[in-house]
Specification:
It contains 66 helices and no strands. 35% of the residues are buried. It is mainly alpha-helical. GO terms for molecular function: histone binding. Pfam families: Cnd1 (PF12717), Cnd1_N (PF12922). Keywords: Cell cycle, Cell division, Chromosome, DNA condensation, Mitosis, Nucleus.
């Protein structure tokens, strides 16, 4: 019998003789490398022939064993054909050997027992040797096939006889896996093979798992998984395998899924979950702190658990209790994984609820506990975990794994998470709400009124069905929450038929419109009715929950995160689909987002608009668009115009939709109102911006309807008609002027401006558009404008017998305020349009001039005959002499003169507007008159501002007046208008407004909210567009960050965010100045902290942070105020410290050491150090700890110095008081000696009272205040001696009282203790 084969640690160990002589080892190895190719080929063929021709057990023969070993040892150097020959021989022999092992059981009854034992030993030896050599070949081949960088040409050249290793590898591994599935008990004598065999197999199998390329071969991977499963489960090699699996999972992320396949495959193949259980328990026993350090391992372990839960949910559900304690760990990745595991288990582990009642109850309780954990984890400290929980709830919702009883709880949690501080959590919450709406079991319509009406009817029906003895009991509490109901039954009923819940869902009007009709469809018996009522109550609660989120969704649409905006729009679209109350109003608030610079947000708005408002039916589309136009404010209309223009250019708004809009405008659609007609015309005006020829075809309809009888019904229709005329294309304007109809249009527009047939609240808007339309279509608008101004003036002054404004007359004039206000509006708006008209004319002339020059250049270049040589010479001469430049200068001078003549005039004679401007300036200075008429003041100041914008001289003359009004006017409307006008003036005349910058910033402190808001908007516009330099008053804008009005605070935050994006972040340079000025303001400490925290957060660059450390530390040097120390140190604590910044802070210790005596300053420095320790490396952390000790030591020394200084001061005060007392005592002695005769006569009272008064005055004037520290002791001494002093004669010294006691008593008197003085006086009298 051959010696036993024992698995060595390495292949080369077979050459070493074992101490136990009965072990097989290599005795005569062959040097393969020394053989020639022909000899090597013959050698391989000889080995192959012996293995094939002789018995398969010949491998254990020493000669064959040595030769095979020699070939395997030098396998890498073998040619491909030899490799193939060797591999095929070994593999086929092992394949033949496996059935022979099973045949051993059939000869087990042989009488020759010794022969059987030898045969089994030989089979065992051969089995182990074949397995050993084959696995070593696999390992050698894989090490040779490691990925290498090979040229493309080299990869293509493959010899014709080359072999493909991947199929061979799969065959070998499958063969070894099959060998583990036979009855190895016959070979090894027990159910488990020996330790060496299993160790060798599993060790090499796990080493192959480290090869990512091998795992891509599905056949090879499946074979390895079978090997691991068999060794671990069938042969109880569980502990070692689970340790290896966990090690690989921690080390390589690509093995996670494949390991899960192996573990799950073992459980299914052998119906034994011991391997999975062992791994789960090992993970559960791991210290949670270990996962904090090993983040990659934590992520891999988490993924592995999720994959296992997906594959074998029932097994994991029985062991989930081992993992639950890890919810208390610090690693959020493990918590994320456990949350996902719970989601998989809830959706898969409890589907079949068959079985005994007790086991069913346990499983339901387990499921309920998991759901409660998921709800609890929604409040996890980590945003990543909160987000993952919400995602899991969305997956459960999609798989219909949430019961109706839990539906509202999940919805309320998701609604609450909409206000989470983390964007990823808000995104997950929005997606969850979308899922809840999409898969809701309550029906396709979720209107609250519908639910309430249906619920009331079925509640009434339920009361009729209930027995009289339980009629008083209610199934729901007053809040509408469902109690004691079988939600599983309700859910089942809902899933069977949603229409059972809403039997009249498509006819919701029945219960709403005909409430008196109490007949409802019969749904069955009492229990079914109760279930239906419970379902309706749950649906009503769900609708109210979604409806309550609308204000939050509006806020999210203004979020700086694009994902917030996009998902909010998607949720609102889903809400509108299910008819949630308030969703349509919220969707309209998304229109201004069309101006967003973020492309994704704009695309989301455009897609939502297309989905909601653009229909296949043109009439429906037209109705949707005109409804939007009539109900929108100015901002929404601007956004709607932008979106409509885009859709028209893309063809999404078709010509049939435009025709439908004309039908609505012309009242061709039955039931059309004047408001709808106006809305249709507004949309057509929007379309005309892109498609210019839309309005010309219906010009007559615009005139007849817009200015006809319908304008009396809806006065805004006239304003919209003016806008339509203004937007006529150039061709339509030319046709209009060629037509006699133009005179009629001019007359209508003029009568609208000068007449009084429109209400006052509509007239201003209509007159604005009418004047603009006249300037757009009239060939000489200045003539008709002059007529309008004259008519307006005559309408004002005709009642007092004056035909014009006589500025020289001092006679009082009585006019109507409304007429004068309208006249001032016409004058100022006409002047403004005249300025715009002059500028447009200038642009046209410049454009024509450029076109002519371009044409001349083209003609000169195309002329090849030389006929234009003279012209070219003339042009060259003109260019050299500068005639072209002088021509441009002449044009500019002409335009400037035309602009100047609008208000000031170019000669001594003042023009029409100039005369009115003089009157207007005098009127605005009459504060007493204007205070009586606030409406007139608003119109006058608005007109004055417009004229100031037109003319620089007029502006300069009235700037003082404007700032006086903006500061002192009682009307907030006037102050708001003037604030806005200041912004326009700063753009037009920046040099004139520059000296008034501080006064402009002062508007930020106005008591009125609207004025402050406009001031923030104006200054933001000027600064962000580089029209105003950021002066030293920016601290006023910073204070608006803590404004009591949330809108103003938000605008200020937006300003600083945009400012931080400009250039090199100006906030970095402004911060020290803002800090200095805010410290001097009367700001609360919380407000200061919030402002500086926000500003510092906008600084992102490390270099700027490091520079700020130095700047702020240096500010300590020149500051003695404790409050400023606290502020500077707080700002330092808000900086993001880098290693360089921390070293700067340590180096600048001398600059702030004097401030460390304050506890608040010290606390801020401690916060800095605590933050720095989190990112610091070992070396820096040591420096920080030393610095912290230094700070603490210095702080304590400073505190002790303060206490010592305070005690010294108290001592000095005592000494000063004693010296004062000695002086007073000497004067007392003299007074007493002089009054000895008075004492003898018994006249003591007056003398003593005089002494007392003198003493108190002297002490008060000479001594310093006694500190509180010694005041109590002083008072005690005085009180103890008070009685003695009162009963004694004025000769106090004769009592022998201690000097210190007398001194203290006098000090007390000197402090003004009047009661003691009076008692002494009374005592002396007695």
């Amino acid at each position: 019998m051959a010696p036993h084969f024992v698995f060595p640690r390495t292949l080369q160990d077979l050459e070493e003789e074992s101490p136990e002589h009965n072990h097989l080892f290599v005795q005569n190895p062959h040097n393969i490398d020394s053989l020639s190719s022909s000899q090597l080929e013959e050698f391989v063929k000889g080995v192959s022939f012996d293995l094939s021709d002789r018995e398969i057990l010949c491998i254990e023969e020493q000669d064959v064993f040595d030769r095979v070993y020699s070939l395997v040892r030098s396998y890498a150097s073998l040619p491909r054909s030899s490799k193939l020959n060797l591999v095929e021989t070994l593999r086929s022999n092992l394949a033949v050997l496996l059935p022979n092992v099973d045949s051993l059981s059939r000869v087990s009854n042989d009488n020759d027992h010794v022969l059987l034992v030898d045969r089994v030993a030989s089979h065992r030896n051969a089995f182990k040797i074949y397995t050993f050599f084959l696995l070593n070949i696999v390992l050698a081949e894989e090490s040779n096939n490691a990925p290498k960088v090979v040229a493309a040409s080299a990869r293509k050249k493959q010899p014709a006889h080359s072999w493909n290793w991947e199929p061979q590898r799969a065959r070998i591994l499958n063969l070894i896996a099959n060998s583990l599935e036979i009855n190895l008990e016959l070979l090894f004598g027990s159910s488990d093979p020996d330790e060496g065999y299993l160790s060798f197999i599993t060790k090499n199998a796990f080493s192959m798992f480290e090869n990512a390329g091998l795992l891509k071969d599905s056949d090879a991977k499946d074979a390895i998984c079978r090997i691991i499963g068999a060794c671990s489960t069938k042969y109880h090699y569980t502990a070692q395998s689970s340790a290896s699996i966990i090690h690989l999972i921690h080390k390589y992320d690509f093995v996670v899924i494949h390991m899960a396949d192996a573990v799950a495959g073992a459980e299914k193949r052998y119906s034994n979950g011991s391997l999975a259980t062992s791994i789960v328990r090992e993970i559960g026993r791991t210290n949670p702190k270990d996962y904090v350090k090993d983040t990659v391992g934590a992520e891999n372990v988490g993924r592995f658990l999720v994959e296992l839960a997906d594959r074998i949910p029932k097994l994991i559900s029985t062991n989930i209790g081992i993992l639950v304690p890890h919810f208390g760990g610090e690693s959020y990745k493990i918590r994320n994984a456990l949350v996902a595991v719970l989601g998989k288990l809830i959706s898969k582990a409890f589907k079949d609820i068959d079985g005994e009642v007790s086991s069913k109850s346990i499983r339901l309780r387990t499921k309920q506990a998991m759901l409660e954990i998921l709800l609890e984890r929604c409040r996890d400290v980590s945003a990543y975990t909160r987000s993952r929980v919400l995602q899991v709830w969305g997956e459960l919702c999609e798989e219909h794994s949430i019961s109706i009883g839990l539906w509202n709880e999940v919805a309320e949690v998701a609604a609450g998470r909409l206000e989470d501080k983390s964007a990823i959590v808000r995104k997950s919450a929005l997606n969850l709400l979308i899922m809840l709406l999409q898969h809701n079991p309550f029906g396709p319509q979720l209107r609250i009124a519908s639910f309430e009406a249906t619920l009331n009817l079925y509640k009434k029906k339920l009361r009729e069905l209930e027995p009289s003895e339980v009629s008083d009991n209610e199934n729901s509490n007053p809040d509408g929450e469902v109690e004691d109901l079988k939600f599983e039954d309700v859910e089942k009923e809902q899933q069977e038929s949603v229409t059972d819940t809403f039997l009249s869902q498509e006819e919701d009007a029945i219960p709403l419109q005909n409430a008196s009709d109490s007949s409802v469809p019969d749904v069955g018996n009492l229990e079914q009715t109760r279930a239906l009522v419970a379902s309706l109550e749950a649906g009503l609660r769900f609708s109210k929950c979604i409806e309550a989120t609308m204000p939050t969704l509006v806020q999210l649409m203004a979020s700086s995160s694009a994902t917030d905006v996009e998902n909010t729009i998607l949720l609102l679209m889903r809400c509108k689909q299910f008819q949630i109350d308030g969703s349509e109003e919220c969707l309209r608030k998304m229109l201004p987002l069309a101006f967003s610079q973020d492309k994704s947000i704009y695309e989301a708005v455009e897609n939502a608009f297309n989905t909601i408002y653009i229909r296949k039916n043109p009439m429906e589309t037209a109705k949707n668009l005109l409804s939007l136009a009539t109900d929108s404010n100015i901002g929404d209309l601007a956004a709607l115009e932008f979106i409509v223009g885009t859709l028209v250019s893309k063809g999404d708004i078709s010509s049939s939709t435009i025709s439908s809009l004309w039908d609505f405008f012309c009242f061709n659609v039955g039931g059309t109102t004047a408001e709808q007609s106006r809305g249709a015309l507004s949309v057509l005006c929007m379309v005309a911006k892109t498609s210019t020829g839309v309005l010309g075809s219906h010009l007559q309809d615009i005139i007849d309807i817009g200015f006809g009888r319908w304008s009396k019904v809806d006065p805004l229709l006239a304003r919209t008609a003016c806008l339509a005329i203004e937007r006529l294309s150039e061709d339509d304007k030319a046709k209009l002027l060629a037509n006699n109809n133009s005179v009629r249009i001019f007359g209508i527009l003029e009568s609208l401006v000068t007449g009084f047939w429109l209400p006052a609240n509509i007239w201003y808007a209509a007159a604005d558009k009418a004047i603009t339309a006249l300037y757009a279509i009239h060939p000489t608008p200045e003539t008709i404008a002059a007529d309008m101004i004259k008519k307006s003036l005559s309408s004002v002054f005709k009642d007092c017998g004056c035909s014009d404004i006589d500025t020289s007359s001092s006679m009082p004039i009585t006019v109507q305020v409304e007429k004068l206000s309208r006249c001032l509006f016409v004058i100022s708006h006409t002047a403004m349009n005249q300025l715009v008209y002059i500028e447009s004319c200038a642009r046209k002339i410049q454009k024509q001039k450029l076109a002519k020059e371009k044409k001349d250049i083209e003609n000169q270049s195309s002329d090849s005959n030389g006929t234009s040589t003279g012209t070219q010479k003339d042009n060259d001469i003109n260019a050299e002499l500068g005639f072209a430049a002088s021509e441009d200068a002449a044009l500019d001078a002409m335009f400037d003169k035309a602009e100047k003549e609008i208000v000031s005039g170019g000669s001594n004679e003042m023009n029409l507007v100039g005369i009115c401007a003089t009157f207007l300036a005098k009127l605005c200075r009459n504060f007493g008159l204007l205070q009586k008429y606030p409406e007139l003041q608003a119109s006058a100041m608005l007109a004055l501002c417009r004229l100031m914008i037109i003319d620089a001289d007029f502006c300069d003359a009235n700037l003082q007046l404007l700032f006086t009004v903006v500061e002192n006017a009682h009307s907030e409307i006037v102050r708001s208008n003037c604030t806005i006008a200041l912004g326009d003036l700063a753009v037009r005349f920046p040099n004139l407004l520059e000296p008034w910058t501080e006064r402009m910033y002062a508007r930020l402190q106005d008591p009125c909210v609207s004025v402050r808001k406009n001031a923030v908007l104006v200054l933001s516009h000027l600064i962000l567009n580089d029209m105003m330099k950021v002066k030293g008053y920016i601290n006023e804008m910073a204070m608006r960050l803590e404004d009591e009005d949330e809108r103003i605070s938000s605008l200020a935050k937006l300003f600083f965010l945009e400012l931080s994006k400009k250039g090199n972040n100006p906030i970095y340079n402004l911060l020290p100045d803002i800090l200095s000025k805010l410290s001097k303001q009367n700001l609360s400490n919380d407000s200061f902290c919030h402002i500086m925290q926000f500003l510092i957060a906008s600084i992102k660059k490390d270099r700027q942070m490091e520079a700020l450390v130095e700047k702020l530390c240096n500010r300590f040097s020149g500051v003695t105020d404790v409050r400023q120390w606290e502020h500077i140190s707080y700002c330092l604590s808000q900086l993001s410290f880098t290693e360089k910044g921390m070293k700067k802070l340590i180096d600048l210790f001398k600059t702030y050491e004097h401030a460390l005596s304050e506890d608040s300053v010290m606390e801020n420095f401690r916060n800095i150090l605590n933050k720095a320790k989190k990112f610091a490396k070992l070396e820096l952390k040591t420096c920080i700890e030393e610095f912290e000790d230094k700070l603490n030591k210095f702080h304590m020394e400073k505190k002790e110095q303060e206490i010592t200084a305070r005690n010294a001061q108290i001592h000095q005060q005592k000494i000063d008081s004693r010296e004062g007392f000695n002086v007073d005592t000497n004067s007392d002695d003299k007074a007493k000696s002089n009054s000895a005769s008075d004492e003898a006569d018994g006249e003591v009272i007056d003398t003593y009272s005089e002494e007392t008064n003198t003493l108190s005055i002297n002490v008060k004037s000479e001594s310093k205040p006694v500190p509180e520290a010694c005041s109590s002791a002083t008072s005690e001494l005085i009180e103890s001696d008070q009685v003695d002093i009162e009963v004694q004669s004025p000769m106090v010294k004769t009592r022998g009282a201690p000097r210190s006691r007398i001194k203290k008593s006098n000090v007390k008197v000197g402090k003004g203790d009047i009661s003691i003085t009076k008692k002494r006086a009374n005592g002396s009298r007695r």
